[in-house]
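Quick one, probably user error.
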C-alpha cells in the first residue's frame, strides 16, 4: 500500500472505494506545523476533482494497473485511437483521459497507457516531442541586446515561445510536462 508521500502525478489510487487519478501532489510544511500532502484527485468515473490534505503516512490502496505501450494513430471525434504495439488491438481513449494530447501528438507517436480491467484509465505522453514550426514571424536583425523570444505555431496548432532564430519549417523539441521549447531537433 503506497503512503500519501509516495503518491505522484498520473498515478491511479483507490480511495474511499473509488478509483482516482492523481492530478497534483505537493508536500506542504509550514513553520512549526506538521507536514502534510496536498493532493488533487480526479474521480475516474464521474470526473469530479477534489483537492484534499492527507497525513504523510496515510495509506492508499493501489489498484492492479497494467502499463502497456501503445501507438497513437489518429483522432476520431473527441476520442483518440491507440494501437497496442504487442497485439495490434485498437482502443479509443477519451479527451478526458488525454487532455493535452491535441497539442503534442501527431500520428505514430508512442505513449504508455495504464489499463485496469482492460479499460484505459490514463495515458502518459512522451516527455519530449519533436514538432515542426508552421508559422513563425520574421527575425528582427540587430535586436540582441535583450533576451528575446517570439511566439510560433507548431504543426499541431499549439503556440509556443521560442528564440528569435527559429524559422518556418524547423523542427523543435517541446517538453510535454511544461509545454516549453527545449532546443532545435
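Nope, works fine. Designed sequence:
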Amino acid at each position: 500500500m503506497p503512503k500519501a508521500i509516495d503518491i505522484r502525478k498520473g498515478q491511479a489510487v483507490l480511495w474511499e472505494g473509488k478509483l482516482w487519478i492523481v492530478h497534483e501532489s505537493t508536500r506542504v510544511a509550514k513553520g512549526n506545523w506538521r507536514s502534510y500532502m496536498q493532493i488533487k484527485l480526479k474521480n475516474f468515473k464521474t470526473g469530479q476533482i477534489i483537492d484534499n490534505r492527507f497525513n504523510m503516512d496515510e495509506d492508499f490502496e493501489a489498484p492492479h494497473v497494467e502499463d502497456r505501450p501503445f501507438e497513437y494513430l489518429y483522432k476520431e471525434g473527441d476520442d483518440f485511437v491507440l494501437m497496442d504495439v504487442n497485439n495490434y488491438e485498437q482502443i479509443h481513449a477519451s479527451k478526458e483521459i488525454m487532455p493535452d494530447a491535441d497539442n503534442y501528438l501527431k500520428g505514430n507517436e508512442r505513449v504508455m497507457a495504464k489499463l485496469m480491467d482492460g479499460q484505459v484509465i490514463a495515458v502518459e505522453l512522451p516527455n519530449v516531442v519533436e514538432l515542426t514550426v508552421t508559422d513563425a514571424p520574421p527575425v528582427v536583425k540587430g535586436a540582441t541586446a535583450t533576451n528575446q523570444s517570439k511566439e510560433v505555431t507548431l504543426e499541431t496548432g499549439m503556440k509556443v515561445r521560442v528564440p528569435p532564430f527559429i524559422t518556418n519549417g524547423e523542427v523543435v523539441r517541446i517538453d510535454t510536462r511544461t509545454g516549453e521549447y527545449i532546443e532545435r531537433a
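The chain has a mean pLDDT of 87.
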